[in-house]
């Protein structure tokens, strides 16, 4: 056995780094093992032709208290995010235009008041109407099981038509509306109401945050260290790496997505229903095509650059727009469309994305180029964008959050109670660290 530590944290995403710093600050000796060649996990900033671009987490909510404390501690600066879906182009049923023209369009399959509703806002609007969840922990109460049904059922019960559901299902952040728990979606909507609408990024790239957290660790993060097994042995946990190296620890925090945990042997096995959730919790595929536009094509056709489409390219979101120089944008594709594209060669993907853009938005022809393709579904250490519980999985998720798994603690955004995304990851790391500290009598 090469080394021994009070705690080994597996995964240098925000959850793992926050857990590690909390444990270190309490006086424990902590080693963080990271499979990849960088820290940050799903926070990943890229150098693009117009400056830094975010391939992973983008928006920092004003209410992200833990995250903002790290930002302040590291002396990092923030800049406001200005992109919103409020002004966007709808491409559907042969229509390419604004929400105003969509309401009158022959391609609009909806009737009555739904005709005026942009498809991108159908689900969000229905979730906001009379959300039964008012408190951050309401989703964990036994009564909440009533809403742990397919999101499609819930949408119908709030008066959304089948035609509107079919339309909304074409593009968004869910795998499909049918395979998503309505309770998970209501929880996300409830969480969103607690954060002011203004969001920010970190100047120089969001990755500077996990990098600054890692820099505070006394023992540097070990990169390129994929963990393959964690086994209890007497009073210790033994962590095994892919190359056969073994590291002993009093406690282990596994701060990796369940997609990745599936390939880590854990002994003794995690208790039910946690083990089943590890095996089954879905993570939708999400592939981003980062684009550079060498001229403002939106000025040529007079339409907003943001686009929501029923095509396989799904959504076009701007990152940095300039009237007199290159701009950065990205096509976001989720779910089945992303998996189909992921299965193709890179050249074929580029051709399809650029052809589809040019077809629905002729002004983009010759104006945009793909600079990077980032597939979260194919990322070996992410296996998808974020956890998105199936109908019927929320009680098991609540149990997984509440189960103290002893010397082996789990963390990651998927195990958050009150917040989602980056702040949820920090929250889960804090809980795992608190349980370890309680066992050390340091809580
Ligand atoms: C495209 C995209 C956009 C997003 N936008 C936002 C947003 O705007 N706002 C927001 O708040 N959140 C956003 N998120 C979500 C946010 O990025 C995540 O919730 C958060 O970063 C997850 O942190 P984590 O520590 O739980 O997991 P991760 O960041 O995934 O960290 C897990 C780490 O474990 C490592 N690992 C995995 N397996 C092993 C192994 N076997 N051995 C060792 N190491 C391993 C991984 O390499 C990784 O570094 C977005 C995510 C994506 C993908």
Automatic annotation (TrEMBL):
- Cofactors, names only: FAD
Task: Report the residue ranges that make up the Amine oxidase domain in this protein.
Answer: 14-437
Which residue ranges traverse the bilayer? none
SUPFAM superfamilies reported for this sequence? FAD-linked reductases, C-terminal domain, FAD/NAD(P)-binding domain
Q: Which Pfam families match?
A: Amino_oxidase
Record keywords: Oxidoreductase
**Signal peptide extent:** none
The Swiss-Prot or TrEMBL record describes its family as follows: Belongs to the flavin monoamine oxidase family.
Instruction: Quote the protein name from its UniProt record.
Output: FAD-dependent oxidoreductase
- Species of origin: Microtetraspora glauca
Q: What broad taxonomic lineage does this protein's source fall under?
A: Bacteria, Bacillati, Actinomycetota, Actinomycetes, Streptosporangiales
């Amino acid at each position: 056995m090469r080394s021994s530590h009070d705690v080994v944290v597996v995964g240098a995403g925000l959850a793992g780094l926050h857990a590690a710093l909390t444990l270190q600050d309490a006086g424990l000796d902590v080693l963080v093992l990271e499979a990849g060649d960088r820290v940050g996990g799903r926070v990943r900033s890229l150098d693009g032709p117009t400056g830094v671009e975010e391939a992973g987490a983008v928006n920092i909510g004003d209410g992200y208290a833990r995250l903002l404390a790290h930002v302040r501690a590291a002396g990092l600066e923030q800049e406001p995010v200005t992109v919103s879906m409020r002004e966007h182009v709808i491409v559907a049923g042969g229509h390419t235009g604004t929400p105003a023209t969509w309401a009158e369009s022959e391609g609009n399959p909806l009737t009555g008041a739904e005709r005026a509703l942009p498809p991108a806002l159908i689900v969000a609007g229905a979730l906001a109407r009379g959300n039964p969840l008012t408190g951050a922990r309401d989703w964990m109460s036994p009564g909440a099981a009533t809403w742990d049904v397919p999101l499609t059922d819930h949408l119908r019960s709030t008066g959304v038509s089948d035609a509107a559901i079919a339309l909304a299902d074409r593009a968004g952040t869910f795998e499909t509306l049918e395979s998503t728990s309505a309770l998970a979606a209501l929880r996300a909507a409830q969480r969103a109401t607690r954060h002011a609408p203004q969001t920010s990024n970190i100047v120089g790239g969001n990755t500077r945050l996990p990098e600054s957290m890692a820099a505070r660790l006394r023992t540097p993060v070990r990169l390129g260290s994929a963990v393959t097994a964690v086994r209890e042995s007497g009073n210790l946990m033994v962590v095994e790496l892919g190359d056969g190296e073994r590291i002993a620890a009093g406690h282990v925090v596994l701060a990796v997505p369940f997609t990745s945990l599936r390939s880590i042997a854990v002994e003794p096995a995690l208790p039910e229903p946690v083990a089943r959730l590890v095996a089954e919790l879905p993570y939708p595929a999400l592939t981003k095509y980062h684009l550079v536009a060498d001229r403002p094509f939106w000025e040529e056709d007079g339409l907003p650059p943001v686009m929501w489409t029923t095509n396989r390219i799904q959504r076009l979101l701007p990152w940095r727009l300039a009237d007199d120089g290159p701009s950065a944008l990205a096509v976001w594709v989720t779910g089945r469309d992303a998996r189909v594209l992921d299965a193709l060669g890179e050249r074929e993907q580029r051709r399809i994305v650029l052809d589809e853009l040019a077809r629905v938005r002729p002004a983009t022809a010759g104006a945009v180029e793909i600079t990077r393709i980032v597939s979260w579904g194919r990322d070996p250490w992410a296996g998808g964008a974020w956890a998105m519980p199936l109908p019927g999985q929320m009680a098991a998720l609540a149990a997984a959050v509440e189960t103290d798994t002893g010397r082996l603690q789990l963390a990651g955004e998927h195990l958050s109670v009150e917040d989602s995304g980056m702040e949820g990851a920090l929250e889960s790391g804090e809980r795992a660290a608190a349980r370890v500290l309680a066992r050390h009598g340091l809580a």
